[in-house]
Amino acid sequence: MSSYLVSRNGEQFGPYSVEEFAAYIKSGQILPDDLAWKEGMASWLPVSKIPTVASQEASRIAPPMPHSSPAVAQMEIEEPWKTKFALIEKAGGYKLPHFRDLTYGERRKVVINFWGFFFVGFYYLAKGMWKKAIVLTTLCFAAIVILEMILHAMGITNTRITSFIASAVFATRANIDYYKKMVLNDNGWW
Q1: Which of 18, 60, 113, 129 could pair with 174 in a Cys bridge, judged by C-beta atoms 3.0 to 4.6 Å apart?
Q2: pTM (predicted TM-score)
Q3: What string of pLDDT tens digits covers the 190 residues of the chain?
Q4: Sign of dihedral through CA atoms 161, 162, 164, 170?
Q5: CATH architecture of the domain with residue range 3-60
């Protein structure tokens, strides 16, 4: 069985079996720029240039996601938005009927918008969705007041949970609402 030696900054490690070598590469403990050698090789090579490793690495990296609709691909928006819109379409559109078919990372890209979380209604205003900003802000305010009254009636005071209601709503709605505005030309609720 062949084994690999690895060199980083003039220090040698190993020998590693093929399985150990692959596992260390996958975990990031062996880097693509590290040098490696095994019996039968003419010289030390960067790990990324070893044919079997390079082919495994290439097959592990997913190709760029195609934009599912020509309308999304031709839009003059930033690439991250094109990717999010393509994922929304992959999930079946803004109602997301195939949401569970997405990977965890894809789901996170579709559902969570950190700018929406931190800037709530102001983020919607910056994106030109002022009608939805007004409606969601009003609904969140009403939900906060009602929840505070319920908690107060139960004798629970000094809770900070209600301060996250608006942030959570805007963070989870922002990508879908922006998709509806840009792709479906639906920019309001009245």
Answers
A1: 113
A2: 0.62
A3: 578 999 988 888 889 988 888 888 887 788 888 899 998 888 899 988 887 654 454 444 444 444 456 677 778 889 899 999 989 988 988 999 999 988 999 999 999 999 999 999 999 999 999 999 999 999 999 999 999 999 999 998 877 888 899 999 999 999 999 999 998 989 877 6
A4: positive
A5: 2-Layer Sandwich (3.30)
